[in-house]
Amino acid sequence: MFSFFRKKTPPPETPAAGPAPVGEPSQVLAPEPAPSQPTERRTWLDRLRSGLRKTGSSLSQVFTGTQIDDALYEELEAALLMADAGVKATEFLLSDLRRRVKERKVTDPAAVKGLLADALTELLAPLEKPLVVGQHRPTVIMVVGVNGAGKTTSIGKLTRHLADADQKVLLAAADTFRAAAREQLSVWADRNRVEIVSQEGGDPAAVTFDAVTAGKSRACDVVIADTAGRLPTQLHLMEELRKIRRVIAKADASAPHEVLLVVDGNTGQNALAQVKAFDEALQLTGLIVTKLDGTAKGGVLAALARERPIPVYFIGVGEKLEDLQTFSAREFAQALLA
Ligand SMILES: Nc1nc2c(ncn2[C@@H]2O[C@H](COP(=O)(O)OP(=O)(O)OP(=O)(O)O)[C@@H](O)[C@H]2O)c(=O)[nH]1
Q1: Which stretches are tagged as biased composition: Low complexity (predicted)?
Q2: C-alpha 150 – ligand 1 centre gap (Å)
Q3: What interface predicted TM-score (ipTM) does this complex get?
Q4: pTM (two decimals)
Q5: Which of 1, 41, 89, 229 could form a disulfide with 134 if both were Cys (CB 3.0 to 4.6 A apart)?
Q6: Element containing residue 226 per DSSP (H, E)
């Protein structure tokens, strides 16, 4: 059994290392560099920090004053709302922070920033969970999301990590409408030397059924189904996803084992609305939040944690292979306030 996992909440400013295997049957591995490559890890963290700078600059600004007063809390409230943390998470964070400030008898605004990082880390912690594959063979992963969220790119990156870990992967191109989507997935499949079940036109549920059946007979470790992008308001297309889900269960009664929503972090509060809508339709098991590089709306993860805490298995901070990383609450909170 494998899980994509990173050491929890590394101490501040310490480059987190990839975990060591912990032995069978629950061997653990990570998509990020091994412990011997702290420089690469540092580089990635730097990218997350600079990516979230747009979100964090106004947040950090709040703590440059000389006193802790109502004006500071008001400014912080505005900055959190601007970062798309949403009303509920913002209210929660403010009252949590006031409590921490009182308890610690803090008088320096700079120290309040540290306490906010703690409060954010605690709030985000329920989102930090590894994606485990290997409990079922094949582990069937269905991937959904709106158009252009980054589904195919994220599947490509994930496939590469799995292939590198000697997992036999089969991709199902369940986007039967868009030829470009199938081609894009084929490119990733070729690049990673994994198999693909693809079909022009036809029923996406049928393609997925064939893929899961093939995955079983070919002893694959993982089957990943890429579905066509759609808006949650397109009810017939949402029904199509439900059908794909049902048909997967016909091919393998225990599947799908994971239903992942890919959301574009750039869409802020709209990402939260997408998570709620897709979760209601499909009972999501995890999220991949993409495009956190250069967004001013990174606070949406706080809103998610407060209102729909579905695990964030991965975050995307760029278009390159190494830009898909596991989510760490502490790192994210620190990057947000850097
Ligand atoms: N900057 C940045 N770009 C990303 C990230 N993830 C994906 N992209 C880009 O977003 C664009 C859309 O990605 P796709 O993977 O094609 O999105 P999709 O959800 O499969 O799109 P549809 O098939 O149309 O639904 C591409 O140009 C990707 O390179 C990310 O984390 N950061």
Answers
A1: 15-25
A2: 3
A3: 0.96
A4: 0.87
A5: 1
A6: strand 222-227
Of the options 1.10.760.10, 2.40.37.10, 1.10.3720.10, 1.20.120.140, the CATH number for the domain spanning 51-126: 1.20.120.140
Ligand 1 site residues (CB inside 6 A) read 145, 147-153, 175, 181, 229, 262, 290-291, 293, 316-319, 323
Q: 232: CA distance to ligand 1 center in Å?
A: 18
Identify whether the C-beta of residue 196 lies closer than 8 Å to the C-beta of residue 113. Answer: no
DSSP assignment string, 73-135: HHHHHHHHHHTT-HHHHHHHHHHHHHHHHHHHT---HHHHHHHHHHHHHHHHGGG---EEESS
Superfamily of domain 131-328: P-loop containing nucleotide triphosphate hydrolases (3.40.50.300)
**Residue 7: HSE in the Cβ half-sphere, 13 Å Cα cutoff:** 14
Tell me the mean pLDDT per 10 residues along the chain, length 338: 52 35 33 47 64 68 86 92 93 97 92 94 96 93 96 91 90 83 82 83 90 95 94 94 97 97 94 96 97 85 96 91 89 88
- Measured CA to CA, the distance from residue 185 to residue 196 in angstroms comes to 8
